[in-house]
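Input (structure):
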């Protein structure tokens, strides 16, 4: 088996067959698979149909793309199964069975949240693992702690007559935020795409046709941060915003595994070899080695 990086994904050559997971583009003769419906993992999906799980196939349909829903796929020389990744609604890991078992995590997290359980764990020979926050300087508080902080932020500003805008991606973070707000008895105002995806999972929200004159809670994509000041002017009351992401040290509600989750996950999977890929791949492999694991960053033409 030979591995190559492809954007935020992996191209695998398996005894003459090609398997492209979250690839940045289409590859001739490859079976194309996506792990979840974030745009930065959908390069191949923009050029044609991709295999995925049923939940992600439904989200792709809402995004104008074609997902073929399969729980298990077979090539001539391998079998493929989807496992829960715990990243966002519909996210999957890809388990490749070819005599030597390989698990490609895609984006993942070990801790569950209000919409998804934590990543499934299965022992394999080789773990090909996303490393976005998988370095020691990313250590996030528990979801319980972060939800308490978020509750205080929302309720304090609403009681003071301010509208609250939570900035998160339309697919993924918006569903977690909607479910959290629903638990507080709040139906957030959202864009139509977020509303359509929320509806797939039974989450309650309202389409923001215009700005409310009353203090309300909105969930909007991060690009709206630059016009937050204009909202206050148009609605005649103050607006406050919060970017909800692991990149925001003020409230790092991340959909990725941090360092401690990364180490626990590797311990549970117990692979012979860890291959890190994505952002921080080299750093993550370095620190995992220091923890006693056989770890290397993904590079082109890697034989396993």
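Output (sequence):
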């Amino acid at each position: 088996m030979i591995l190559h990086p492809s954007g935020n994904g992996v191209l695998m050559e398996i005894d003459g067959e090609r398997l492209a997971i979250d690839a940045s583009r289409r590859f001739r003769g490859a079976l194309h698979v996506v792990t979840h419906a974030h745009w930065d993992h959908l390069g191949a999906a923009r050029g044609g149909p991709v295999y995925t799980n049923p939940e992600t196939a439904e989200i792709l349909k809402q995004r104008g793309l074609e997902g073929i829903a399969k729980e298990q796929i077979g090539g001539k020389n391998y079998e493929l199964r989807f496992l829960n990744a715990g990243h966002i609604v519909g996210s999957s890991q890809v388990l490749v069975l070819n005599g030597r078992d390989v698990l490609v995590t895609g984006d993942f997290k070990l801790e569950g949240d209000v919409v998804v359980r934590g990543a499934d764990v299965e022992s394999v020979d080789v773990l090909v693992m996303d490393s976005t926050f998988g370095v020691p300087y990313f250590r996030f508080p528990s979801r319980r702690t972060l939800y308490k902080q978020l509750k205080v932020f929302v309720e304090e500003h609403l009681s003071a007559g301010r509208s609250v805008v939570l900035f998160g991606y339309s697919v993924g973070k918006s569903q977690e935020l909607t479910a959290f707000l629903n638990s507080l008895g709040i139906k957030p105002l959202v864009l139509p795409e977020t509303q359509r995806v929320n509806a797939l999972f039974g989450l309650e929200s309202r389409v923001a046709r215009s700005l409310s004159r009353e203090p309300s809670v909105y969930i909007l994509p991060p690009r709206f941060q630059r016009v937050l000041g204009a909202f206050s002017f148009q609605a005649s009351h103050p607006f406050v915003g919060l970017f909800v992401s692991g990149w925001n040290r003020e409230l790092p509600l991340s959909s990725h595994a941090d360092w401690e989750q990364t180490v626990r996950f590797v311990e549970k999977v117990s692979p012979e070899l860890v291959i890190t890929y994505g952002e921080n791949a080299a750093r993550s492999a370095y620190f995992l080695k220091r923890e006693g694991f056989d770890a290397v960053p993904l590079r082109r033409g890697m034989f396993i």
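Notes: Residues 227 and 233 are 10 Å apart (CA to CA). Residues 2-138+255-303 form a domain with the Metallo-beta-lactamase; Chain A fold (CATH 3.60.15.10).
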